[in-house]
Amino acid sequence: MGDEIVREVEQFLYREARLLDERRFHEWLELFTDDVHYWMGARTNRYPRLSKAIAILSPNRYVEDDHTREDELSILDETKETLAGRVARLDTGMAWAEDPPSRTRHLLTNIEVEPGDAASELDVYSNFIVYRSRSETEQDFYVGARRDVLRLCDGTWKIARRKLILDQNVLLAKTSASSFEAEKCGRR
What we know:
The chain is of the alpha+beta class. The chain is built from 3 helices and 6 strands; from the N terminus they run H-H-E-E-H-E-E-E-E.
């Protein structure tokens, strides 16, 4: 992957983070393709295959990694339509979880860019930290990894797929309303 493309992708992702931090959700929505799939899972507590702590009664059902699979319960499983509904809800003034609004800071690191399955797509891997504060005492951190599929549409990169895996397996926050943006637009 050429340095110019990598830099272009990094700038795209940094701009997305800024749009979220500035609460420019309608502009943020425009960064997605109409067929986007936006999915977020968490880590689970699974023992290694060789663990002596438990007996695995059915080894053929055993899963080695600790990531939530897409056929398991997710934290988010969104389309562009449902993301737009979350943003629209914020516009109503009735989203109590965001009144007053959260303050967020999205940090991205370890960005890797690889060719995608189609000529117009790229696979982008990154790690993130999202800091959220609200009112005087609410503070939350969300940490994890994500895989994006970016698609070139009319000369502009758009997010066609996003898979986020939180490192936490229990969310203690009262709301994740403005933390991930779709993720952020308030859990219902």
